[in-house]
Description:
Order of helices and strands: HHHHHH
Radius of gyration: 17 Å
Number of domains: 1
Structural class: mainly alpha
Mean pLDDT: 86
Distance between the termini: 29 Å
Strand content: under 5%
Number of helices: 6
Amino acid sequence: xxxxxxxxxxxxxxxxxxxxxxxxxxxxxxxxxxxxxxxxxxxxxxxxxxxxxxxxxxxxxxxxxxxxxxxxxxxxxxxxxxxxxxxxxxxxxxxxxxxxxxxxxxxxxxxxxxxxxxxxxxxxxxxxxxxxxxxxxxxxxxxxxxxxxxxx
Length: 152
């Protein structure tokens, strides 16, 4: 592996990891590193979809075994849970998927869909459409106002 490839990997992988946790971190991280807009869009989509993939197939296991053993049971109806249920009842699968990058972040949004027994094919397709849409929006906003607002 060349030094240039290693340097690129050391820039891309942390941004993908952060995007798995918080979608808006992708465009901000890419802008900070100096990547072009199209790279930011791709990294944002890839980061979210890796998270969706992992938590779709391992969602029940992670929620029950990993989170369940480390975190105490919180209130049954916290403010966040009520918001998720409200969005689910009002808008269904596509509403949760559409609002995941904005309100829930990729992991909780995916776990909501998995909890409501949504078929994997629908989870992937709806989350991919959402990731593509929001990656364009977030990237445009970050790159458009980045020079004025962000200190990078």
